[in-house]
Amino acid sequence: MFQLLAACGLPEEPVMAPPETDKATEKELQRIRRLPENRVCPNCLKEESLGFSAVCTTFKTFICHDCKSAHQSFSHRCKSIQMSVWTLEEVKALDDCNGGGNAAAVRKYLGKVTPKDRVKQGSTLELYKRFIQRAYVDQRWADDQPEVSVPEAPQALPAPSSPETVEEPRSRSRKGRHRKRREKAANLQSDSVQVAPDGLWQHDLRSAT
Ligand SMILES: [Zn+2]
């Protein structure tokens, strides 16, 4: 058919970006959406046997309607599976191997959540919002919470101004070096005192020979 059209000299169909997700991307999106872990809302544990219709793209989670509303109140970006246009990159980002999907989000943000921390299904929007705030904004249940304080790094900076008070190896060695230099200088001074007679003596010896 295409060959026929081409033979007739008719222009090919213009390759414009259609206002819908392309077939391969759609297929991949549906595959990821239907994975067992993505059919359970990571926040309220609601199950959807056919898969959810919303994704929070900020945290790459497949979520129920209530959690979507809660996320949106924090301006977390959410997209509809059916109504939004998806690019292959966006869909790939939802794959577990790229750190996306519900299992990855549970590992990252909900590693330490206990059953009583979770929002109960059918709760008010306020309770959903409170859970989303704690889990994703405050990240209080994150498994890999970074150490907030960086010990000694800020204290090490003003060390040169007060080397006496800081018990830090580098400043101590510098102090030691200073002391050695001072001792050396003192030796030089005491040497110089003896230099005259020494020199004289050597001079005398040399002149004697
Ligand atoms: Zn939910």
What does this structure look like?
With 209 residues, this protein is mainly α. The protein folds into two domains: 20-137, Arf GTPase activating protein (Annexin V, domain 1, Orthogonal Bundle); 167-208. The chain has eight helices and three strands, in the order ααββαβααααα. The protein has helices spanning 2-7, 23-33, 65-72, 88-92, 101-109, 125-137, 153-156, 169-208; strands at residues 54-56, 61-63, 78-80. A three-stranded antiparallel β-sheet has the order 2-1-3. β1 and β2 (61-63) form a beta hairpin. It is elongated and about 60 Å long. Residues 41, 43-44, 46, 63-64, 66-67 line the site of zinc ion.
Short description:
With 209 residues, the chain is mostly helical.
Strand-helix topology:
Blueprint (H helix, E strand, L loop, with lengths): L1 H6 L15 H11 L20 E3 L4 E3 L1 H8 L5 E3 L7 H5 L8 H9 L15 H13 L15 H4 L12 H40 L1
Antiparallel strand pairs: 1-2, 1-3
Helix pairs in contact: 3-6
Bound molecules: zinc ion.
Pfam families: ArfGap
InterPro entries: AGD14-like, ARFGAP/RecO, ArfGAP_dom, ArfGAP_dom_sf
Protein name: Putative ADP-ribosylation factor GTPase-activating protein AGD14
Features:
3 strands, mainly alpha, disordered C terminus, zinc, Annexin V, domain 1, 46% helix, binds zinc ion, zinc-finger, 3-stranded antiparallel β-sheet, 2 domains, 209 residues
Percentage of residues in helical conformation: 40-55%
Q: Total number of β-strand segments?
A: 3
Counted up, domains total: 2
Q: Write the CATH fold name of the largest domain.
A: Annexin V, domain 1
Strand order of the largest sheet: 2-1-3
